[in-house]
Amino acid sequence: MDTTSYRLDGHDVFEHRLTVPLDHADPAGETLTLFAREIVRDGGADLPHLVWFQGGPGGRADRPARIGGWLDRALRDYRVVLLDQRGTGASTPADAVTVTARGDAAAQAAYLAHFRADAIVADAEALRRELTGGRPWAALGQSFGGFVITAYLSAAPEGLSAAYITGGLPALTASAEDVYRLTYAKTARRNVQYFARYPADQARLRELARHLADTDERLPTGERLTARRLRQVGIRLGADLGFDALHYLFEDPFVTVGGTRRLSRAFLADVGALVSYAGRELYAALHEAIYAQGAATHWAAQRVRGEFPTMAEDADPAWPGTPYHLTGEHIYPWQLREDPALAPLAAAADLLAAKEDFPRLYDREVLARNTVPVAAAVYVDDMFVPVELSLETARTIRKLRPWVTNEYQHDGIRVDGERILDRLFALARG
């Protein structure tokens, strides 16, 4: 392992680069570089390690310029290791350029299949052995990071001294269809709440959808903006200040140019920033695969969508009898073709959606015998990780103590990280 160091805001920072196998079942085969940034508070050299698993999939770890929030709280008790999960950040990247260089769609899909939670756990174990001399470390995971920790508790619990999960207790056995039915229902509820707060925005959304059906409006990335793509800004409904952000987005979208009504460049730029997956290709390509365990997803979000008339793709914005809703955290096959950043990976994503033999990520029997102290924040109103499935998982994992709260949305750790970690650390200690 190669390590460099520097100082940041009263802390020592160590940047580690470690070579790991692409396929941990083939250690002599192709390799990747794994990057992790370890932060140690002055006087904290003897503290135990805690590894941070970012949400995603495909999200890189935090890049702190100043130490605050959840990280500041964690550093009181731990040396914190900010891991860039494989494919992200300064680890070997997996994006549209690097993945398409692998060859045809089949080769691309085969490569991407190595970037799920099970491989991330194996990477973390390789890093732990280098950093701690074999001693177990604690883990903190937000959203998908909690999925990774649950896989960790299944595959290598001996590597963990404690686990803390925020908004990320996954379903252990539910199908992708089951998960999406719940997330659509949660998204519909958030729509109702949003349009109750800002009722004029429902008329504005319908107006925009009708305009896009008749007018060729282009995003800064060059492609035509469609109503179905616009509705994807609803992913913001699941954030703490998401309602307000969307209201400000919709407040003044039109300009008149030469007597013709058009969308303003500012509005198109803001929408483009929300719906483009440039730089986040791994998230889109792998999103459904995080729910695949021994069965193909077959684009479950697309197939289930029609069961929810307010979010149906063919919903008529001119029909007043049915609310016209935004969609949430759902990836669609057409999206990988409309978004120029994703189009190179569309065929590979189709193959991943059809893949029948993804291994299981969670072992219920191992989890039922778990001896690692686990504390989990479960958000009642979470639009991304349904509370019903999280509580079912909480009942399965031995020694897991949940904190069920309606005080936060999915991004609670970004809003009130110090308080949340105070609560979780105390829960884990019993």
Number of helices: 17
How many domain regions?
2
CATH topology description of the largest domain = Rossmann fold
* Main sheet: strand order: 1-2-3-5-4-6-7-10-11
- Radius of gyration (CA) equals 22 Å
CATH superfamily of the largest domain: Alpha/Beta hydrolase fold, catalytic domain
End-to-end Cα distance: 36 Å
What is the overall silhouette?
globular
Count of individual beta strands: 11
CATH architecture of the largest domain: 3-Layer(aba) Sandwich
Largest sheet: number of strands, sense, barrel closure: 9 strands, mixed
* Unreliable segments of 5+ consecutive residues: none
- Average pLDDT, rounded to a whole number, is 97
CATH class of the largest domain: Alpha Beta
Order of helices and strands: EEEEHEHHHEHEHHHHEEHHHHHHEHEH
As a percent range, the share of helical residues equals 25-40%
Q: Say what oligomer this is.
A: single chain
What structural category do the secondary elements indicate?
Answer: alpha/beta
Q: What proportion strand?
A: 15-25%
